[in-house]
Amino acid sequence: MTKLRELYKCDVCGNVVEITHEGAPALVCCGEDMKKLIPKTEDTGGEKHLPVLEETDNGILVKVGDIAHPMEDEHFIKFIEVLTGDKVIRAELKPGNNPEAEFKIDKSEVKAVREYCTIHGLWENK
């Protein structure tokens, strides 16, 4: 049973979807069940993926890793999301962008931040 805000990926075509209406028993794409993405919460390798939140004068800045993540054509951060009690705020990124995004929201409202790397998947920091 799908739940609100879960992310799923198709292993055939690479589609990633976020649940906005829960309840489906499964998601299917390209004739196969999509895989639920489980966010990683600890950096263990050389590359850093964990989103880092900093307070700014205008809200918050979310950077991917304490060392800037690569933003190459085949390996980049696709999006950064801020989750609150009742909102999902997303910044979509492209190769060549900085792996960060600023959001006009008070830090006290933030429940979690997460990002999606095209190679290493979903990462979350609460």
From TrEMBL:
The cofactors required by this protein are: Fe(3+); Cu(2+); Fe(2+)
Q: Where is the Desulfoferrodoxin N-terminal domain?
A: 5-37
Pfam families named among the record's database cross-references: Desulfoferrod_N, Desulfoferrodox
Listed GO MF terms: iron ion binding; superoxide reductase activity
Q: Which UniProt keywords apply?
A: Electron transport, Iron, Metal-binding, Transport
One GO process term, biological-process aspect: removal of superoxide radicals
What the record notes about the co-factor is: Binds 1 Fe(3+) ion per subunit. The iron ion 1 is coordinated via 4 cysteine residues.
Binding annotation for Fe cation 2: H49, H69, H75
Catalytic reactions of this protein = reduced [rubredoxin] + superoxide + 2 H(+) = oxidized [rubredoxin] + H2O2
User: Which ranges carry the Desulfoferrodoxin ferrous iron-binding domain?
Assistant: 43-125
Q: Where does Fe cation 1 bind?
A: C10, C13, C29, C30, C117, H120
Name the InterPro entries on file.
Answer: Desulfoferrodoxin_Fe-bd_dom, Desulfoferrodoxin_Fe-bd_dom_sf, Desulfoferrodoxin_N, Desulfoferrodoxin_N_sf, Desulfoferrodoxin_rbo, Desulfoferrodoxin_SOR
What NCBIfam families is this protein classified in?
desulf_FeS4, dfx_rbo, neela_ferrous
Q: What does this protein do?
A: Catalyzes the one-electron reduction of superoxide anion radical to hydrogen peroxide at a nonheme ferrous iron center. Plays a fundamental role in case of oxidative stress via its superoxide detoxification activity.
Recorded protein name is Desulfoferrodoxin
